[in-house]
Amino acid sequence: MKKWLVPIVVVALAGNSIAANAVNWWDLGNTKVGPEQTLQQFHEYFKQQFPNMPLEKYALGAYAFSPQLYAQYQEAMQFNPGDLTLSEGQKLWDSKFKNGKTYASCYPDGGKGVAAHYPMFDSKTKQVVTIGMSINACRKANGEAPLSYGSQDMIALQTYLGSLSNGMPVDVQVKGPGAVKAFEEGKAYFFMKRGQLNFSCASCHVAYAGKYLRDQIISPVVGQSAHFPTYRAAWSAVNTLQKRMEGCDKKVGAQPEKLESVDYRNLEYFMSYLSNGIKMNVPGYRP
């Protein structure tokens, strides 16, 4: 019986705080305002919440809100364990397919700057395409079998391809009716409450952004996609943004989606668009 007391109290306290802030942040979930206005509203909201925080600093996530945590981040980045995965990804990237070509042959400028524009909406297939899907499309075009999403090789390749955009601002485009529809579906998923805790992504990463929830500072949604794939000490590994989505769904007691499901792809599309203008830094490092 005692095991149930703590979660119930935490949820009750969280619910009261969220209700108090509902007028301020819940309106950001309006799916009728369009991508450009959504981006403006989110940036304005966080500017009001943290007036001294420059947009670029949101790439630091929770580290931006604590000098002590930031000092730990700087120390960790002297040797980011994620660099091992980065090196693995580079080796795979440079390895030749059976036809003699490499992954670089599939992308403009050998992949430099490509990840900053992903996910993107494909008007031909009428779906959001992620960087992982593009890697498998490259393999298929070169006569190779697809990699499993979430596999070590796939994550390493995503990490390396992401790193080829380091220092470049996220620039995800949402143009055309199909793209807007996918974007708004991603927004709806972000604000949809689910699971035993009845939390949404927004409950944490908007309402509680920059604040403590239980024993950790919650990172704002703005800037999150700029450092994924990222190394997390809690994982002792590098993983993708969608893997983090899966973990969040599990934490609130919801059934997680499969990696690269339509819902997760649309959610990643929405979240990545909110990071437009923030420079990429892959792999990141998080607690």
Strand content: 5-15%
Let me know the number of strands: 7
- Give the structural class: mainly alpha
Query: Radius of gyration in whole Å, from Cα?
Result: 19 Å
Number of helices: 10
Low-confidence segments, given as residue ranges, are 1-23
**Largest sheet at a glance?**
3 strands, mixed
Distance between the termini: 31 Å
Roughly how much helix do the residues carry, as a percent range?
A: 40-55%
| Helix-strand topology string | HHHHEEHHHHEEEEHHE
Gross morphology? globular
Mean model confidence by pLDDT = 91
What strand line-up does the widest sheet have? 6-5-7
How is this structure best summarized?
Belongs to the SoxA family. The protein has 287 residues and is mostly helical.
Structural overview:
With 287 residues, the protein is mainly alpha-helical. 45% of the residues lie in helices and 7% in strands. It contains 10 helices and 7 strands. The chain has helices at 2-25, 35-49, 67-76, 82-94, 131-141, 152-163, 177-191, 201-205, 241-251, 262-274, and strands at 120-122, 127-129, 212-213, 216-217, 230-232, 237-239, 284-286. The strands form 3 sheets. The protein has a 3-stranded mixed β-sheet with strand order 6-5-7. Helix 4 (82-94) packs across helix 6 (152-163) and helix 7 (177-191) packs across helix 10. It is globular, with a radius of gyration of 19 Å.
